[in-house]
Amino acid sequence: MDYDVLNVFCGPDGGHGNALGVVRDGALLPGREERQAFAGKLGFSETVFVDDPERGVIDIYTPSVRLPFAGHPCVGTAWLLDVPELVVPAGVVAARMDGEFSWVEARPEWSTPRTMRQFGSVAEVDALPVPPPGEWIYAWAWEDEAAGRVRTRGFPGRGDGITEDEATGASALLLTAHLDRALNIRQGRGSQILTAPQPNGYIEVGGRVRAHF
């Protein structure tokens, strides 16, 4: 089974980013059970199956569940397919390129629920241990509130082997909606996510994408 591996939301130096698997020919694994099993085998936080590359129809899976929408899979797949939009079960995701950044536009309510937990300092976020499986926790603290710079870490809590997500676009959408302002997010070991609220209730989320070799 051929698939691409991308790093999405890379840092300014091109490093880090969250790994994403993309099966360009989704027809090779048409059934949900087959796709779920393959996503579990790959073990990435998300794997995408492309059902129509021209229209941008995609199907997203974690190692344990199917998702109606997810941020870093959409940002990475839009970059890979070079399409103006993606179609996911939650809706139509507009996409664009702007220099080194790949952007998508989505609604925060498309994201799966998670607990936003604010801390008083970056050092507190950095020192957090991985919590036991349970709720999806997005820990954050202001790095520079005036500049909109935030330090975050994401703990899915699913018990499927992904104890911490390196970069999560859906969480960034929810935090942006909560704070109602554009953000420059540093997540995980050194990934970067940019967000910008839009007047129509959508939020843009963008970052660098690199092919993983």
From TrEMBL:
Protein name (record): PhzF family phenazine biosynthesis protein
InterPro entries: Phenazine_PhzF-like
